[in-house]
Design goal:
Length: about 325
């Protein structure tokens, strides 16, 4: 397992990071979730990403239980705050000082740890002054409850504003967590250039486009039984937009000879592709079976030649999403309750 520095910091994280968004506490039972975490540990994955909102806090609990007997200093644990949790009252969401202060304490309890390595703003909060949010994060860091600060799906301008405040407050804002894959490249035009200037890395989610880039979804065919597209607990909603585009699914099938030539599975090719971007510190992978973890980690350390990358671009063509405005759309303009 290769490790990379996260942003302009001394922190190294595993370039394949294990995430439990749509699995722990919802799709799979706790014993299977624990087996997946064990597989990640055995594969050399040291970084684990979760959020308080995943399965309405259950995902953090499952991850904390799975990691409780591991040497804490050998792990990098990330979690997030913003989306509604608990009974979803008026202050159970957003990036207010109240919600941040209460959420970090609850997350630490569920994760069974005294601190997280990275505490992330899950979205931008348009209803809370950014200064209030950043001061609250600074207090979390100074209290020793988080070592570094990150964000998720923030625009280039939002990153610049937050980085300026972080510098004033003398805390380290070192990461952004956006969606990024061969098919979803909205961050390349503005977010990545700004991040490179600010000393911020990307920890990307959905590098296999919700499973579309594995090639298992065929144009004109019903999704395979037991796949994410048939999951009624949230997975099918996330993948629906891709599955509605037969042209995209057809082009993905044309990537198979390229993967074969590289000696990779389709999933490994997709994960290796995002890791070719030097501003990407890690690709988050999830799993509903331990063998999926074992397969995905084979993408670590893979270098794809420029000729192969050019062929991927040629195959996918205008099926790729490149509009920078998609990042702005990711953050709700009013708080969700």
């Amino acid at each position: 397992m290769e490790h990379r520095y996260l942003g302009n910091s001394g922190l190294k994280i595993s370039e394949i990071t294990y995430g439990n968004w749509l699995t722990h506490g919802s799709q799979v039972e706790a014993d299977v979730a624990t087996a997946c975490v064990r597989a990640a540990l055995d594969a050399g994955i040291t970084s684990y990403d979760t959020a308080d909102t995943y399965a309405n806090t259950a995902a953090e609990t499952v991850l904390g239980e799975a990691l409780k007997n591991e040497r804490r200093e050998s792990l990098e644990i990330f979690t997030k705050v913003y989306f509604p949790t608990g009974p979803k009252g008026p202050n159970d969401t957003g990036l207010s000082r109240k919600h941040i202060s209460e959420s970090i304490n609850a997350s630490l309890k569920r994760l069974q740890t005294d601190y997280v390595d990275l505490y992330q703003a899950h979205r931008f909060d348009y209803e809370t002054p950014l200064e209030e949010t950043m001061v609250a994060f600074a207090d979390v860091v100074r209290a020793g409850k988080a070592l570094y600060i990150g964000v998720s799906e923030w625009t280039a301008d939002q990153l610049k504003q937050a980085a300026a405040l972080a510098k004033e407050l003398k805390i380290q804002l070192i990461s952004n967590q956006p969606e990024y894959s061969m098919l979803q490249r909205a961050i390349e035009g503005e977010v990545v250039p700004a991040s490179e200037q600010l000393g911020i890395s990307q920890i990307v989610w959905s590098p296999v486009a919700q499973g579309v880039l594995t090639g298992k979804y065929k144009p004109g065919e019903q999704p395979p039984a037991g796949s994410r597209a048939t999951d009624s607990k949230g997975g099918s909603d996330m993948i629906a937009s891709w599955l509605s585009k037969d042209e995209v699914l057809a082009r993905v099938q044309e990537l198979r000879p390229i993967a074969d030539e590289a000696g990779l599975t389709m999933a490994q090719l997709a994960i290796a592709w995002v890791l070719q971007n030097k501003n990407v510190a890690a690709a988050i992978v999830g799993a509903s079976r331990p063998e999926q973890v074992t397969d995905n980690v084979q993408a670590s350390g893979v270098e794809l030649p420029a000729t192969l990358l050019a062929r991927i671009d040629e195959v996918l063509g205008d099926a790729v999403e490149r509009d920078p405005g998609r990042t702005y759309e990711k953050s709700p303009k009013t708080r969700l309750t």
